[in-house]
Amino acid sequence: MPVSIFRVKDKSMLPSLNDGDYIIVNRISYLLSSPKPGDMVVLRHPMNGMLIVKRLSHERNGMFYVMGDNLKESEDSRSFGYVSRPAIVGKVLHIVRKG
To answer: Are 48 and 27 in contact (CB under 8 A)?
Structure first.
């Protein structure tokens, strides 16, 4: 399926995403272009495989450094390191606010 909907379940992306918001994710966007710094993406956590939302910070040798917008509440590349391109599920296209 080229587009998926996910529910945000933490505070790691505040203020961009709130706990309970929904995001619409394009799963095929990176088949046509490369991820770029600033993109908000859904990826598989490299340690436990859970889906998480982060922002791409930079790329080095085909690996991506990702960070949460809420640095105090985010487990991201600062703890698990760079992630590979196959770990990225897709690009966040739209946010649907809870409420």
So the answer is: no
How confident is the model over 22-50, as pLDDT tens digits? 999 999 999 989 999 999 999 999 999 99
Mapping DSSP to helix (H, G, I), strand (E, B) and coil, where does residue 31 land?
Answer: helix
- For residue 44, the Cα-to-chain-centroid distance in whole angstroms is 9
Summary mean pLDDT of the chain: 95
Tell me the HSE value of 92 on the side-chain side, using a 13 A CA sphere: 24
Token duo for residue 2: 């080229």
Kind of pairing between the strands at 51-60 and 40-44: antiparallel
pTM of the model: 0.93
Domain 3-96: CATH architecture, name and number where available: Ribbon (2.10)
In sequence order, what are the residues at sequence separation of 6 or more whose Cβ sits closer than 8 angstroms to the Cβ of residue 52?
12, 42, 43, 44, 45, 75
Start-to-end CA span in the chain (Å): 27
DSSP 28: S
